[in-house]
């Protein structure tokens, strides 16, 4: 008789063998929120207004370390040139480009990284602007120029 | 009495939350964002190295190759041979096969005598970037990175 009772208890226990997932979900959300708050994206922010030219011989960069980025816009209706810093948040003049490049080249030299200039020129920008920025950067001490491009037009 | 109490305790024991609707909504959102989002295209590199002002002791045994890019997009080699036709602003990229053939020839010549190929690119100020990049791209196809650019005639 006692064994039947025990069996009954056991059966009930087996029936209720459900895992409680809620603490796990709590922890997952907690971790998710922690990493969302604590992490910072390391990708290079670029100016979305620039549509780079297409070059099929361009290669995927192995490392994006040691780069200073300038964007060159297509000339406006009034024929004015516009250059911005990496994410397009700040418009700079050629003199400022030289100053920034100088500072950047110095800091890269102390850290032992090869500095290079990433020129993101719009595909309809004028060549004269590329020359001007390349010259300004060369005066600042960087002679390796990388052109931002797309591998394919599609 | 006893039965009622039993029922009461059982009800209190498993107040289960039905999360299946939550999962449904989560999947719906996932599918919505999967469908509507577009992946941003990766930008690639096309690098050149501009010459430094350090003079070299030994002059190159091969003559430098001059590439001229006119304002209308024509590409000339050694000032006279046209290797690329005129292209208006906003036109599609061009592979410049004639220029590539010429560059290959030149590169073989330079490699044959064991010297570095020297290419001078003189691009017109009014030319557009895509045409200029076409030429740099052709240079990259034969692995010429050392490029001299002329025509730095700005207001400065």
Explained architecture:
The complex is a heterodimer of chains A (154) and B (156). Chain A has 154 residues and is α/β, with parallel strands linked by helices. Chain A folds into two domains: 37 residues, no CATH class; 81 residues, Nucleotidyltransferase, domain 5 (2-Layer Sandwich), CATH 3.30.420. Chain A is built from four helices and five strands; from the N terminus they run ααβββαβαβ. In chain A, a hairpin with a 5-residue loop joins β2 and β3. The mean pLDDT of chain A is 84. Chain B has a five-stranded mixed beta sheet with strand order 4-3-2-5-6, with helices on one face. Chain B is built from four helices and six strands; from the N terminus they run ααββββαβαβ. In chain B, α3 packs across α4. Chain B has a domain of 86 residues: Nucleotidyltransferase, domain 5 (2-Layer Sandwich). Chains A and B meet through β4, α4 and β5 of A and β1 and α4 of B.
Question: What features would you highlight for this structure?
Answer:
heterodimer, A: 154 residues, alpha/beta, Nucleotidyltransferase, domain 5, 2 domains, five-stranded mixed beta sheet, 4 helices, 41% helix, 15% strand, B: 156 residues, elongated
């Amino acid at each position: 008789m006692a064994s039947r009772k025990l069996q009954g208890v056991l059966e009930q226990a087996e029936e209720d063998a459900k895992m409680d997932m809620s603490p796990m979900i709590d922890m997952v959300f907690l971790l998710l929120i922690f990493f969302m708050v604590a992490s910072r994206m390391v990708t290079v922010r670029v100016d979305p207004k620039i549509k780079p030219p297409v070059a099929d011989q361009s290669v995927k960069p192995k490392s994006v370390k040691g780069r200073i980025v300038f964007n060159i816009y297509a000339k406006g209706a009034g024929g004015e040139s516009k250059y911005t810093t990496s994410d397009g948040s700040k418009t700079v003049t050629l003199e400022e480009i030289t100053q920034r490049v100088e500072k950047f080249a110095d800091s890269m030299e102390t850290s032992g990284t090869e500095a290079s200039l990433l020129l993101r020129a719009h595909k309809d920008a004028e060549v004269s602007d590329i020359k001007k920025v390349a010259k300004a950067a060369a005066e600042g001490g960087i002679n390796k120029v990388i052109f931002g491009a797309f591998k394919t037009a599609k | 009495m006893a039965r009622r109490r039993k029922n009461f305790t059982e009800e209190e024991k498993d107040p289960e939350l039905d999360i299946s609707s939550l999962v449904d909504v989560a999947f719906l959102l996932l599918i919505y964002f999967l469908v509507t989002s577009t992946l941003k295209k990766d930008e690639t590199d096309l690098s050149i190295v501009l010459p430094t002002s350090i003079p070299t002791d030994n002059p190159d045994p091969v003559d430098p190759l001059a590439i001229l890019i006119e304002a209308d997009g024509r590409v000339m080699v050694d000032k006279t041979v046209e290797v690329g036709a005129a292209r208006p602003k906003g036109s599609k990229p061009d592979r410049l096969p004639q220029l590539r053939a010429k560059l290959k020839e030149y590169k073989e010549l330079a490699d044959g005598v064991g010297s570095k190929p020297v290419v001078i690119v003189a691009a017109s100020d009014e030319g557009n970037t895509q045409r200029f990049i076409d030429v740099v791209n052709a240079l990259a196809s034969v692995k010429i990175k050392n490029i001299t650019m002329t025509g730095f005639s700005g207001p400065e």
